[in-house]
Design brief:
Blueprint: H1 12-19, H2 23-29, E1 34-37, E2 40-43, E3 46-52, E4 55-58, E5 64-65, H3 67-75, H4 79-86, H5 126-135, H6 140-148, E6 152-154, E7 160-165, E8 171-177, E9 186-188, E10 198-200, E11 207-211, H7 214-223, E12 233-236, H8 243-251, E13 257-260, H9 272-284, E14 289-292, H10 300-309
Parallel strand pairs: 11-12, 11-13, 13-14
Antiparallel strand pairs: 1-2, 2-3, 3-4, 4-5, 6-7, 7-8, 8-9, 10-12
Helix pairs in contact: 1-4, 3-4, 7-10
Protein name: DUF3991 and toprim domain-containing protein
InterPro entries: DUF3991, TOPRIM_DnaG/twinkle
Organism: Hominenteromicrobium mulieris
Length: 314
């Protein structure tokens, strides 16, 4: 067995071969489950990770790269051991002048950009309403506002589509969320811009509330719907990547205060939501007045449903 401190010589050809390994085939050989979604794949274990050939992007963290970085990130390998893993642990001295095996190698070319297009809409929003208002307890008036402003709709498969706009009102990306509570489904619409988050934006707002997920954003608005909530702006990152926040702030110069409203993962080994909130506070406190709004439950939807169950909320 090689020690982590042992020097492992690698040629540029070997590194290139590893970098361009088809990630889906690599995962399947490890017994992992992946699901095709349009022109890309979703990894079941990490459903915010979008895979296309030898490239990947994890929407929840903003991390991305080629195959070697994928193995380093998710399987905790050093760079040389990740390369060895991807080329099948062959002897380091094997001759790459000969034609390499084609089973697990993708063509080392850049991906052809996929055109972004919103999923076709269903003739009605019945499943959307049932899921958001009954399953998630979000107020009808909040749901109606978001539908009227073309922020959400139901697609032909019965999923909720959360539409993401830039500051000029142009659709740049979209997220899908399943309405079947028994079968979790989330997806990023192919071809969209990962750094454009889901938002309710007021062009004159000086305050921005930032969430991990659209459901929590809408739950928070339900909890505060009797207040003048329209005066502020609200952004869902679709995870914990700072890229959508940086883009939003660049496009909305009026923001002065930011409240980070991330999950409170108290029952997990790592409270990633609150750790991220503290990190974001440090990163953005120089230019903005920052604060943390921590839910007393796991997330803001749990807070909302708990209050309704206890009869504390109307």
């Amino acid at each position: 067995m090689r020690s982590h401190s042992e020097y492992i010589p690698l040629t540029q050809d070997q590194i290139a071969l590893a970098q361009h390994t088809d990630i889906v085939e690599y995962l399947r050989e490890r017994g992992e489950k992946v699901q095709k979604e349009g022109n890309h794949y979703i990894w079941e274990k990490h459903d915010s990770c979008v895979i296309h050939g030898y490239k990947w992007y994890q929407n929840s963290t903003g991390k991305h790269g080629a195959a070697v970085a994928f193995v380093q990130n998710f399987f905790h390998k050093s760079f040389p051991h990740a390369v060895l893993e991807l080329i099948g642990n062959r002897q380091i001295t094997f001759d790459l002048a000969a034609p390499p095996p084609t089973k697990r190698e993708s063509k080392p070319t850049d991906m052809i950009p996929v055109a972004f297009c919103l999923p076709p809409a269903a003739p009605d929003n019945r499943r959307l309403y049932a899921y958001l208002t009954h399953t998630r307890s979000i107020a009808h008036e909040i749901v109606n506002t978001f539908i009227d402003e073309h922020l959400i709709y139901q697609d032909k498969q019965g999923n909720i589509v959360f539409v993401c706009y830039d500051c000029f009102g142009r659709v740049k990306s979209a997220h899908k969320r399943g309405t079947n509570s028994a079968q979790r489904y989330r997806s990023f619409v192919t071809g969209g811009e990962f750094n454009c988050g889901f938002s309710y934006a007021n062009d004159n707002a000086t305050v921005l509330y930032v969430f991990e997920a659209p459901i929590d954003l809408m739950s928070f608005l339900t909890l505060h719907r009797h207040q003048p909530w329209h005066r502020a702006s609200y952004l869902s990152l679709g995870g914990l990547s700072e890229d959508p926040l940086r883009r939003f702030l660049k496009e909305h110069k009026s923001i002065q205060r930011i409240a980070f409203c991330f999950d409170n993962d108290i029952n997990k080994p790592e409270n990633r939501g609150q750790e991220a909130a503290k990190r974001f506070m440090r990163q953005f406190s120089g230019k903005y007045i920052t604060s943390i709004l921590c839910p007393c439950k796991k997330d803001w939807n749990d807070v909302l449903r708990d209050k309704i169950q206890k009869g504390e909320f109307l």
